[in-house]
Input
Amino acid sequence: MKIIGKWLLLFVIFIVSPVKAALDIVITEGVDAARPIAVAPFVWDGIGEAPQQLADVVMSDLTRSGTFSPIDVRALPQQGIFTAKDFRSADWANTEVEALLVGRVKPYGNGQYQVNFELIDLIKSQLPQTNGLLDPKDLVLDKSEVLISESQFRSYAHMISNRVYEKLTGIRGAFLTRIAYVVVDHNQASPFQLMISDYDGYNENMLLRSKEPLMSPVWSPNGRKLAYVSFENRKAEVFIQDIFTQARIKVSSTPGINGAPVFSPDGKKLALTLSKDGQPELYTLDIATKRLHRVTNHYAIDTEAAWFPDGKSLIFTSERGGRPQIYKVDLASGKIRRMTFEGEWNLGGSITPDGKSMVFVNRTNGKFHIARMDLSTRFMQILTSTSLDESPSIAPNGTMVIYGTVYRGKQVLSAVSMDGRFKARLPVGQGEVKSPSWSPFLQY
Output
């Protein structure tokens, strides 16, 4: 319980996971509100069975986005097409689908495969034609032809999902991102595991295993490093670890709390919570020089900083008003103002990539929910209906939030769309999962 547990602990003592789809996403709400889309099985133009079905991955991606609801492939009016040239608009006249994705996979030799796809505009295909029949190529919203190896099938399918999502919504797709999280399995000798996986739980890899708690993983802006808190030396210390070379450095090990690290937007600094001078206060740390700058100075607890996208301000959780609430501090002037007032507690805030909203944990009537506030109107919306929700992490395109919650007495991860309509749960097979952190857009 990254936020709630840590906060409760702060109040008491001033201190504070193999290649497998471990995160089996279960969609719980919101499919009915999604936009219908058709994804045809990609035509296999080879001998025997296709190595993998790209369309299955694309359908899963679009479904998990909460924005689209692919129709049953058995209900497709046309089967076996892979180009707009074979598309018959009359066959699709009675559907409400707005776009159709078709494609083909063909062996190319030397372990390579030629993959083609086209995204067909079904809305345009149904418009009255005044100048004769519409040229099929005018229905194509997007198309591509590439050579890939079998090992690239899954990542290329995510790339197709990104292009379809952006073409139909105008928002960059986030299907080639990753998440970091902590798995706790007390049946293991070293029960704490820092894991990273694709956003959908595939390609899970363990970055670190420890007998002592690991917490608060957070991505660097370039997606190549993680900062996190480790108690492996029987005290809270902050490390930064390269996820490719596994090399890591200890960046903060002052007396008392060393917690809640978060990279600045340019990746050159960390904001973190230190209690080396008594009370938990916010600091910024220049990673290259290790120079510390104290941001807050108050007798109450200040913690859980998050950066505004311009890097000029932080939000943080403080109980200087008597209860945990979220405040904003201007780093140049040091001026602080309170951001939240509704509910009993508000804590663990993050700013959306566009800087327009804040996502945080709200406690009302004793229940912890994920909430979003429009920063211009101050309107607050409760996004989740579960309880004991914590550790919200926003997708880099700002459309979804992944967070920790409790399901059947076990800590799991869940996801909710930014409008609260779509919800999914990500249970884990062994142990419990917590402290999720969604990566930025990745360039590798």
Notes: The CA atoms of residues 3 and 436 lie 11 Å apart.
